[in-house]
Each structure stands twice: as C-alpha cells, then as structure tokens.
C-alpha cells in the first residue's frame, strides 16, 4: 500500500488495531479513548486467547474505528500516542498499533513484521507513532521494534 490511509481503510472505515500485552485482566472502557478532543467513532474490545503461547500474559485487542476523513486530522497521531500510553499503563505492559492481520505470537516485535507495527508504548516510556511507510521500512524503526521485543522478553519470559 502506498499510504497508511490506504492500509487502514482497505475494508471500509479506518480501523486502528491496538493490542495490549500485560498483567492486567480488565480492559479500558470505550470512553477511555476520548483523548485530546478526538475519540474513535466506535470501539470494540476483544480478548485474545494465549493458550498456544508459552508466556504468562493477558492480550487484548481494541478496534478503534474512525471515519476515513478523520485520518487527515493532523492531531490524530498525537491522539494515538495518548491511546498507547493509556492502554500500556492499564495493561501493565506493552501496547502497539498494527495493521489488521499482522498479529501472531511467534512474530511479536520481530524484524519480519516491523513494518506492520506503526506505534508502540512500553508502560512508563514515551509512546511512538509513525505515520508514513518510509519510516516503517527503515533500519532505525526495526531497531526500535527490537527494543520492544527485548522489553517483552524481560517482563514476560518464556
């Protein structure tokens, strides 16, 4: 895809997929994403089964749906950073933004899917959101994703 907007709207409205991996079992409420005067039009929350995974963690998925024209709002990346911050704190772990279909336990924060993750936050750290494909394909971005993997391995060892 040539743009993030195309990648997020491939099946209709823009769906920003936010995952959390952590210790907390309770999810954020829909109103928790009303940040910086911007909120999703809809919020869906789903528990991801971790039965096939060898780590003790709770994984949740949030589908944050926005009308397509809202993706042009220059404040949206800042709002998504705050969503990541809030979600990672609630999860007591890690939150990240990824394109639909890019989740698999064996590939969390690895080089092979680094360009499918466009935002992340480890609880207590500053959130990062990238809004262009060029940066997602860079060596610097892959290093950042590796750092998140290192944080995951330290906090949730296999």
Task: Give the helix/strand layout.
Elements: H1 4-8, E1 14-22, E2 42-48, E3 58-66, H2 76-91, E4 94-98, E5 117-122, E6 128-129, H3 133-136, H4 139-155
Antiparallel strand pairs: 1-3, 1-4, 2-3, 4-5, 5-6
Outline of the structure:
This protein is of the alpha+beta class.
CA-atom Rg in angstroms: 15 Å
Low-pLDDT segments: none
**What is the topology, as strand order, of the major beta sheet?**
2-3-1-4-5-6
Terminal Cα span = 35 Å
**What's the oligomerization state?**
single chain
Give the strand tally.
6
The general outline is globular
- Number of helical segments with 4 or more residues: 4
Question: What is the N-to-C succession of helices and strands?
Answer: HEEEHEEEHH
The major beta sheet can be summarized as: 6 strands, antiparallel
| Range of helix content | 25-40%
What does the average pLDDT come to?
A: 89
Strand content: 15-25%
* Sheet/helix structural class: alpha+beta
Which key features would you list for this structure?
158 residues; six-stranded antiparallel β-sheet; single chain; alpha+beta; 27% helix; 4 helices
Q: Could you characterize what this model shows?
A:
The chain is an alpha+beta fold and 158 residues long. It is 27% helix and 24% strand. It is built from four helices and six strands. It has a six-stranded antiparallel sheet with strand order 2-3-1-4-5-6, with helices on both faces. β5 and β6 form a beta hairpin. The longest helix has 17 residues. The termini are far apart.
């Amino acid at each position: 895809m040539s743009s993030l907007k195309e990648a997020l709207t491939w099946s209709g409205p823009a769906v920003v997929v936010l995952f959390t991996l952590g210790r907390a079992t309770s999810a954020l409420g829909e109103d928790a994403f009303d940040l910086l005067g911007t909120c999703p039009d809809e919020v869906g929350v789903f528990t991801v089964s971790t039965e096939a995974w060898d780590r003790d963690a709770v994984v949740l998925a949030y589908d944050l749906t926005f009308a397509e024209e809202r993706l042009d709002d220059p404040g949206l990346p800042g709002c998504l950073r705050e969503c990541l911050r809030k979600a990672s704190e609630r999860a007591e772990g890690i939150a990240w933004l990824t394109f639909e279909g890019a989740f698999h336990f064996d590939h969390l924060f690895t080089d092979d899917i680094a360009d499918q993750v466009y935002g992340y936050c480890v609880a207590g750290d500053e959130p990062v959101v990238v809004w262009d494909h060029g940066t997602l394909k860079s060596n610097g971005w892959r290093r950042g994703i590796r750092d998140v993997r290192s944080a995951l391995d330290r906090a949730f060892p296999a």
